[in-house]
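Q: What does the assembly look like in three dimensions?
Context provided by user:
Components: two
Sequences:
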Amino acid sequence: MTNRFHPSHDVLAAHLDGEAVLLDLSSKRYFRLNTTGATIWRELEAGRSTQEIADTLVSRFDVDQTMATDAVENLLAELTERGLLRADDDQAGGA
Amino acid sequence: MAQRLGVDRVGRRGGERMMPAAPRGAIAIILGLTLVSTACQDSTTNPPVTPERQLVVSGRAERGSTVRFGVEAAGGSAVVPARDSIVSLVVTPADAATVMADSAQLVATGTLQVSATLADQTVLTTTVVVAPPPTVVFEGLERTAGRDIYKIALDGGDLTRLTFNAADDIQPSVAGEVVVFVSYRDRNGELYSIRLDGTGEQRLTNTRANETLPAVSPDGSKVAYANDATGVTKVWIAARDLSGAAALSSSTFSSPASIETSPAWKSSSDQLMFVATAGPAGRASLFTAPPTSGTVPTIVPSSGSTGAEFEPAWSPDGKRIAFALLVNGTTQIAVRDLPTSATTQLTSGTTSSGQPAWLPDGRLIFVRFLSSTSQELAWLDLSQPSVVHTISITGLAAQHPSPVRP
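A: Here is the predicted structure of the complete assembly.
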């Protein structure tokens, strides 16, 4: 499994007050991310790896490395399942 | 619709020579196409023994289309008797069309000579000038090459790849000879331009933000696009070289968290339409604004009243818009008459359709989303919206069509 993901090209984000709303122009659906989710999305936008994102969560929130890694991997799996993320090696996942 | 060629009946029946009664050489220009009739050259003065008849063509005389031939009494309205049924058609040159019983699929541009033999052995002729189909620029996904910008004719011919970068090149917008598109070769979304012949590629933006979904004004002077520089995607406006870039909407418009995207130009280049999540109940709806930064956009009357609306496209005459309407978990193509707000849903079913764009002659091209990685271009004529034509492109998933305007 790749450890680097990027937002799909069709997903637009609105960050406000620590939270985020995602609008997927492919499915025309909205998604709301809480503070942790919005932080992970920001890190994805910056091109950070899964490990780097988990490290960021450990530094900002009261979680240990295992919990942070689990949280990141779970959210990445869900975002990927919904077509909101593309993996670095996924040519077809840009939309 | 029948296209009356406006010409005289010609031909011969049972060895009789007949003289045309109406002026020759009339030309009908319908749907922007020219159909030119011809007549067999008879020079005797014998009076006609049957009503004057003419070979008429219905359909679009365009490469890739099928036209039907029929017989009418000259002048138009008379019922065609059974003896006038077409028993054979001959098209010259033969390889320019595939002939069926009383129709021909046009496979090449140029001038066709058509001869129809009727049941009573009369031969009627006409000439059909076959126009090239419109060209569309689009984003194509090929499994190994990724996403690049291509152009193709509406009948699936003349496919040409314009960009070759390993990173994704997407979301093209055409004005004149220039295509503005988004490229991720710099990791984030930046705007680039290239000429329609694939030369002259230029980088237009160089920022840390994502500049996406560009729309070049029809007069080529400005570019509107989506920009997430502030953390919330908003529509921005700039000169064609991207100088003077600024947010379109005033800070007093909507809430700071409202997403704005998918700008589209009116053909007069003096109005923009775009999507903002600032409609009824925060629903994505359509807004208009002059193409000047700091304006307060106006919601399109009735937009968002029945469902979220996305991806607007202004008709060439500026009186209608096409857009993607969220319906039962799918998106479908709809058209709204702006003076009356009357809205017609054109597509339906479980397959989503979206990203409509108007061809110069008023047809609509759009995208059918077959799966998350498979999309195809399709088009329809508003006079017959139930007939959807798909554009076959082997090995490419296609989306974001932008028609080339002559």
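Follow-up: The first helix of chain A runs from residue 35 to 45.
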